[in-house]
Amino acid sequence: MKRVLLLVFCLSAFLFSCKKSGIAPANTIVATVDGVTKTYVVEPIITFAPVNQLIFDGYVNHDQKADWISIWLDASAPITTKSYDLGSSYIDAGYSPANPSDSGRVYYNTDDKYLYDYNFTVTIKSIKGNNIQGTFSGQLLGLFRKSVISVDGRFNINVERRNVN
User: Fold this and answer.
1) How far apart are CA 141 and CA 117, in angstroms?
2) Which residues form the signal peptide (predicted)?
3) pTM assigned to the model
4) How confident is residue 100, by pLDDT bands cut at 50, 70 and 90?
């Protein structure tokens, strides 16, 4: 009997310790920037129905002097489960590494002028109620186009939808 209980306990502990690696926790962005993976906390997003825009940004641990990442997707029709890229939609993605002061921050952004050299894709994988999940990947350009960083990640965002009156 003790062996059966021990086996059940160990099996339960193993199953509950497994993580779903493909899904980010709610209201987070998990991103890998030039090989370094971090989790960014996102404030709840307010959108207006119909949802043609998805805009969210986050900081590591809510610290505004920490790493920052932002995604802005503006589609010509309501957002659905599909892939959007710079060639077919307006996407503005940005990243800024941690900086102890508010001045002198370095920013990396998408730039549609360099569409054929660098691309950025946002894929909406799931829209269920007020929850939107997806992935993103691409290159962001630094100041004066002197540096390029690779970014990829996933997001799990809860939105509050409001009707436009």
Assistant:
1) 11
2) 1-26
3) 0.76
4) low
